[in-house]
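Colleagues,

Please find the record for the two-part complex below.
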Amino acid sequence: MARRMPLLFLVCISASSLYAQDLAGIEIHGFVTQGFLFSSNNNYLTMKSSDGSVQWTDGAVSVSDSLTDKLRVGIQLHMYQLGDLGGSNVLIDWASGDYRFNDHFGIRAGKVKTPLGLFNDSQDVDAVFLWILLPQGAYPIDNKSFYLSHLGGEVYGDLTLGRRAGKLQYRGYAGYNNLDLNGGYLEQSAEYGLVFTSPPGGKTYGGDLRWDTPLRGLTIGSSADVLAVDGTAPGGSVHAPPFLISAQYAQFTKGKFYFAGEYHRDPFYAILTVGPAAIPLSYDERSWFAMGSYRLLKKFQVGSYYSHYVNKALDTTQPANYSKDWVISGRYDFNPYFYGKIEGHFLHGTGLGYYTDTNPNGLKPNSSMLAAKIGFSF
Amino acid sequence: MSKTRWLVLLAGFLGCWSAASAQDVVLIANKGVQISEIKDADLHAIFMGEKTRFADGSHAVPVTLKGGAVHEVFLKNHLGESPGDFRAQWRKAVFTGQGAMPRAFDSESALIEYVAATPGALGYVSRISPHDNVKSLAAIK
């Protein structure tokens, strides 16, 4: 933390000179956020949150340039610390060349964001959300860097269907994806005694289709993402054959109101081999959420959501196999660049976000949490 | 009527006139842009990065003001967006690698100067700002 505070301070005091630099067409943007989490009972997301924890920092810088009317290149570097996850490693969030033939068809290649549901590709951009934590059943923050982007390419575009039929937006992609060495899944495998030195990964492909309906503000969509994971560690291996994650969603915006809902299904099977032991992991994860928000004042927004997650492959009456979260949130924008958020969570079940290392005495089934965050974006 | 009362009335009138005029937004474009009118739906698509071309197929370069009453009136009346939502949508595009934010200007004069010098540029200013060196576009609902 001592290492990160000077960075945060430097960025904040330099705000006046950092406003979205544009050097002869080169655009530079960035954000930095600092979070705080306090929880009753259990420690959440590898933080010592029951004592109150500020081990929650995010920062990114993006540089992009439009080389021609149709060609744009860019890169975004990202660093995060979430309890024991993340760390000082700088990750490439995305780095791509984007050629837009016309408004109906374009291609991106490089490391590109993965569309899945309403928020997957933007889940690390805290500045655009009211929420501090997105619904964890669909967007688990401890594993966001795994789902966020992939190496490969995508095609994208818009198709106008006419005044009475709205517009379709499509994205299709294929490539390679790997787990984050400092992310949640490999933190869990380390708890089994399997420590990877190179990240397991596999092929991925999928797409997203969303319909901006003729009813202004109403969008309906569906996504699919096929993933596979294989990797070898000094003491064993992991193998997950291709599995399909699917999402169906809708959102509606009208004036100061925003509503959204989404359903996710993620059935997969994996085998962890640790020495002579083969540990089967079976999941049939189903999650959904419903959320709503209202802008009370120009600078002040409030909202609430309910997030529901169960692992149907196991006994769903056990708290370890479900997670049900009621959330209330508030956000205040001090100016176009600085904002603050506060959020309350009433969490039932321990199916998501808990780790043995930070809860050595076991878990209680319910926990309440208070989260706060300040952010700066330019 | 006393001189003071006249002055108060005059000041009030000028204040109202000035406020109304400042919020009377006119669309402007580079003189090379061939179209003379544009639908609000197309404006929305161009300013939100969903479209990169005018109806005639030529390249569009949207530019904005950084803030203020004219910016807010334009967003509300022509795009149906609040400044916060407009900013959030562009941040999402920028930080996911899906778009480049429109160039934003501190003053109307700087915006007009840029539009005049940049082929395909499209922006907005208050009607009272001198803008002889650019073209005015009619907005169609």
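Residues 13-22 of chain B have pLDDT under 50 and may be disordered.

Comments are welcome before we finalize the supplementary table.
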